[in-house]
What we know:
mainly alpha
Amino acid sequence: MTDVDAIRRLLVNAVRLQRDDIANTCRIRIYELSGTDYEDPIERRLWQAVTAYEETLLEKHGRKQLASYTRRKIAVKGPLQTLTDWALDPKVTPGFEALVAANAAKFTGEYIVVEHAESFPAEAVQAAKSKLEAYGVEVTMP
């Protein structure tokens, strides 16, 4: 299914019927579809992560709320530096915590850094792994 509006309707019904399995599948599909405009796999995954965070904000606040600071940082520093900065920051972002809590850790910046370790400095990869492990996230490679 590639129609995000249809997926959102299905998500609303799944939540109403307390079908968490279907609701989570809908959420993941929305996240996945958001990156299709990007050829670069890291950039695609980054925008999927941004969408995932914005979707958690939508569910939390009941209205669309852009991750403006995140979008601005990506525009200024670029995808690789943004992900590196997130990984090296000793604190976790609100987006990281929200996505881990929503069982969507694979859409965190830290997960992307570990997933594409060959594109990032070793210290960033290690820091990202440490954060994920501290939150009980197991990183599995495709």
